[in-house]
Design goal:
The structure holds 2 protein chains of 2 kinds. By secondary structure, chain A is mainly α. Chain A has 12 helices and no strands. Classes of the chains: A mainly alpha, B alpha+beta.
Chain lengths: 279, 137
């Protein structure tokens, strides 16, 4: 990893600081999942093709995330790819160390099991590693200007990351399915209304600083149509993807899939709308 | 810098078309979802689980014979703690057979499981399987 800013600092100390910060971010973002038993189980029973899909879909997401918020300032796409791979590596080390410490992985755990457990945990941890800068670092004036120049696509992308982060926390749990079984379609409709209302509250409260900022001169429905509805659609799509990934849609009919998706879309929508706070 | 920030905060006269297109597509998706849920809500009448179990296959393994079963819920409501019993027809007196439990079987869903018998050779006709019961989630 090359030193790109702060020429006064030595490359080694800067690299050590970046690695340490990334490891801290990985720890914060993955700790709830590292201590959730459903995720340990998914590590050994989840279809390997889905696990591969998770890791492969995470790579472009991490590269784009590094483009927006990395643990160091990058000069180009090659740096972003490199940083994404470093983030995955740091995440894998953090997850392996903690799972070993928790006794979830032992010396006699079969390789397929511990590889599965680490693979499933390292994706949210890698997001945390990349986001470490925004969590621990101080935004400079230059960065603020860059945020102001972000476009609509960037805002939707950050919404997707926010939805993925909160959705990933709860999607593997049994409670998510149990809630959808307990609810009727009327409950689901009310939950959709609440999700949209809360999302819109966040959209207005945070103002979505940037090129598509919510202007006080605009009617409320403008931001609702341009930001809240697409944000909720993204939350629904991310929720459906996570449910499929964790084999929660297996054996369900369309009604069951819709109900579970609406339930998971509630935390995902909050994550999407509050992406500016979380990320 | 201060001037630039002030300029940025001024209301923008027109939003790019892509923002409205994304909004329209998302609106169509949400409206379709609402219509689907509303239709399901008004068309359901006191939903109850309707459970059945079938033997899907029997295979030999080192630990005995594996009898694979599928529990289907053709009702609209989910059932939890669904128990399934299996017993050999030629079982000796006092043999209670075997029982497994599914945490949940959602409405119109299928869940799969298996019984393990230590016996060497079992045919589908040798075993009776039945739903023991369930509780509401």
């Amino acid at each position: 990893m090359a030193a790109r800013t702060h020429p006064s600092r030595s490359g080694a100390s800067r690299a050590a600081r970046d690695f340490g910060r990334a490891a801290g971010g990985a720890l914060i973002f993955s700790l709830p999942m590292l201590m959730t038993m459903e995720l340990w189980w998914l590590g050994f029973y989840l279809d390997r093709a889905r696990l591969l899909a998770l890791v492969l879909s995470a790579l472009p997401l991490l590269v784009l995330l590094s483009r927006h918020i990395g643990f160091e300032r990058t000069r180009g796409w090659r740096d972003d790819v490199l940083d994404s791979l470093i983030a995955l590596g740091i995440a894998a080390i953090v997850c392996m160390a903690l799972l070993f410490l928790f006794g979830t992985i032992t010396h006699d755990t079969p390789p397929e099991e511990w590889i599965g457990k680490i693979a499933i945990q390292m994706v949210p941890a890698a997001i945390g590693a990349l986001l470490a800068k925004s969590q621990f670092g101080e935004a400079s004036a230059e960065e603020e200007v860059e945020e102001g120049e972000e476009r609509y696509g960037s805002e939707l992308f950050l919404m997707a990351v926010g939805a993925l982060f909160l959705g990933f926390n709860v999607a593997p749990t049994e409670e998510m399915m149990l809630i959808s079984y307990q609810m009727t379609e009327w409950h689901a409709l009310a939950l959709m209304a609440l999700s949209l209302a809360l999302m819109h509250g966040f959209v207005f409260a945070l103002g979505f600083a940037g090129g598509t900022e919510v202007s006080p001169d605009e009617p409320w429905w403008s931001a609702f149509v341009r930001l809240t509805l697409p944000g909720y659609a993204i939350a629904l799509a991310i929720s459906l993807y996570l449910l499929w990934l964790f084999a929660r849609t297996d054996g369900l009919d369309a009604d069951g899939v819709v109900m579970a998706t609406v339930v998971l879309a509630f935390p995902s929508a909050i994550g999407a709308a509050a992406a500016r706070l979380i990320l | 810098m201060a001037k630039e920030r002030t300029r940025r905060r001024q209301p923008q006269p027109a939003r790019p078309a892509v923002e409205w297109i994304a909004g329209a597509l998302s609106c169509a998706l949400v409206v379709a979802l609402i219509a689907f849920l509303f239709y399901r809500a008004v068309s359901e009448d006191a939903p109850t689980p309707d459970l059945s179990v079938t033997i899907e296959g029997i295979e030999r393994a080192a630990g005995g014979t594996i009898v694979r079963i599928a529990v289907a819920n053709s009702g609209d409501a989910a059932a939890s703690a669904v128990t399934v019993h299996a017993a050999r027809r030629d079982a000796p007196e006092g043999d209670a057979g075997r029982q497994i439990e599914f945490d949940y079987v959602a409405g119109h869903a299928v869940r799969r499981g298996a019984f393990v018998f230590p016996d060497a050779a079992i045919a589908p006709g040798d075993i009776d399987v039945e739903i023991g019961g369930f509780v509401e989630p």
